[in-house]
Input
Amino acid sequence: MDLGIAGRNALVCAASKGLGKGCALALAREGVNVTITARTASELERTAEEIRRAAPGVTVQTVVGDITTAEGRQAALAACPAPDILVNNAGGPPPGDFRDWTREDWIKALDANMLTPIELIKATVDGMMERGFGRIVNITSSAVKAPIDILGLSNGARSGLTGFIAGLSRKTVRRGVTINNLLPGPFDTDRLRGTATARAAQSGRTPDEEIAAIAAANPAGRLGTPEEFGAACAFLCSVHAGYITGQNWLLDGGAYPGTF
Output
């Protein structure tokens, strides 16, 4: 299927590895020029070279910086001031017990996983509407549907973003701009390995044993891959997805047990 987005420009946040990288690769393979951000220059450049090899006809720009800071956002938008596609992504806050979290911990989580996406949307959505085309995809978490006890900071911040998007996405779609959320379940990423390490400290098992248990418990019998996550993102960014907005797409191998 031709997604109809060749030649478009995308800003993909936190894209040096994991799910952000999967999204950037999938978009580039569809002919989209990508600007990718991350905090670590070496990892970012390795990913950029990988994308260039996979999609030699596209332009790949890198922006080193922390997208959750004003400086990081300014640098990203300076490199890609008028994206047609925006993929919001940022590392989640650490696991733990809410009794141990301070107000500063909560503010940091909200800044990273709620307010940063909103700031980037605010900076780009009007231009998208003026041009008559835009796709915004927020990478959130399956915890929005089924909260994970040790990820309370993430549960709260990402749910706040979800509520905001539910309202805004109904205002932009008439102008050709869709806004949707992708909710990853257990994917083979550094984030999952961090969660497994935290659980291992409580269970007495090794992190690898925890990861194996997570995979075995999933109805699919495995973890998801960044490549299949990226493919879902690319479709949401396509010309074929213009009638999909304000949705929360759960990619979890069937782990969420609900009907709705």
About this structure: The chain has eight helices and seven strands. The first helix runs from residue 18 to 29. The longest strand covers residues 177-184. The helical segments are 18-29, 41-54, 70-79, 103-131, 152-172, 190-203, 207-217, 226-236.
